[in-house]
Amino acid sequence: MKILVVGTGAREHTICESLKDEAEIYSIMSNTNPGIARLSQYKLASESDMDKIKQFALENKVDMAIIGPEAPLEQGIVDLLEREGINCVGPTQEAAKIETDKAFMRNLFEKYNLPGSLTYKIFDNNEDMSLFLDEFDQDVVVKPVGLTGGKGVKIVGEHLKDSQEAKEYAQHIMETSMGGHPLVVIEEKVVGEEFTIQAFSDGDHLLPMPAVQDHPHAFEGDQGPITGGMGSYSDKNGVLPFLSKKEYEEAVNIMEKTINAIKKETDPYKGILYGQFMLSQDGPRLVEYNARFGDPEVMNVLPLLMTNMRDLCTDIIDGKLHKANFKAKATVCKYMVPNGYPETKAADKAIDVNENKIKDSGALIYYAAVNQKNKTIYTTASRALALVGIGETIAEAEQICEESTQFVKGDLYHRKDVGTAALIQKRINHMKELRGN
Ligand code: GLY
Hints:
Blueprint: E1 2-6, H1 10-19, E2 24-29, H2 34-37, E3 41-44, H3 50-59, E4 64-67, H4 70-75, H5 77-83, E5 87-89, H6 97-100, H7 102-111, E6 120-123, H8 126-135, E7 140-144, E8 154-155, H9 163-176, E9 184-188, E10 193-202, E11 206-208, E12 213-214, E13 217-219, E14 223-226, E15 231-234, H10 245-265, E16 270-280, E17 283-290, H11 298-301, H12 309-318, E18 330-338, E19 350-353, H13 355-360, E20 364-367, E21 370-373, E22 376-379, E23 385-391, H14 394-404, E24 408-409, E25 412-413, H15 421-435
Parallel strand pairs: 1-2, 1-4, 2-3, 4-5
Antiparallel strand pairs: 6-9, 7-8, 7-9, 10-11, 10-16, 12-15, 13-14, 15-18, 16-17, 18-23, 18-25, 19-22, 19-24, 20-23, 21-22
The structure holds glycine.
Glycine binds at residues 214, 229, 290, 294-295, 297.
């Protein structure tokens, strides 16, 4: 079977690894990711260039396409390819609104009375927005309605000092149409611990994967600016040290009800649904959805997948999903990123990666935003590569992962604390404190 994978990063490298023994892989990537390049027949093109993707898929007579990032989903790549007879793992433009249109997402929760929602309002003018903030007696989160690559969300108490700054930022979002709409979403701020659940969905059936916790802050101790994600971990029992099985199931139930609601509202949701939850003292609350695998979270789950990935993709398309089994192992993933990331970006610097030593140390490597020219790998402006340790415990996985970082040399840094006992204990204590026990 010929499968086209659209996308350039570690997420897509991980998807290609999961398919490498099961399919002939084709890929569209914007620069030469050495991991994807060695596994596929590829074309260099923007992952948002609809015409080039279609042309490449047709020229190579691919049997299906897996869409990695959200940007082509927002532009309707699935609708376009399906019109040409190419089935896709990824939602249609309408169903992808669960990620690409925050107003669609929150209104869906309200219309179908889905559990786990937040108090929210959507505004198109300053007067109503200011009045609401004057009366709303809680800290808020301010978001553009459309996609901003994770950079549009600001939280009172973190990025915004108070309600006045929230008003100014909300006004700025509307005036500049940030994210493509002259609208702003204001949500209540929920305190707790964030976690991710990714699931395969065929529109009717949802198969959840192990829960993962990402680390968005750039520096150790959860300090510094928000990034695309500096690393993540998962545990062998499929839940997290601060998250019970019951809470995990509550979150999965929210996702199941969401795909049922999407089907009633628009097209069936076929692809990967990523739920980002806040575990509050009252249980899981849905912070946002993504219409794709998470990055780095995909690297905690696909290396553990025991079910054939190609069959899962076929089942998504045929509406016949029935099982997805994962090895009962813990994982820790750490991203190595250019010094200065995410602000000043030291791009175009050569890095030296000793893949043999990484392999000998037991870790896995997934290349992200790097570019290979001849035999040399150069950084670009974003995360360079991820290392993943797999073990019987999170501690063992962390040790394997951390050990392997010494085999990558360059102007890079990583968070040593991801997956360490001290940081995990901090999460457990935080939840105990919130629950008052
Ligand atoms: N880890 C955040 C994301 O994939 O959007």
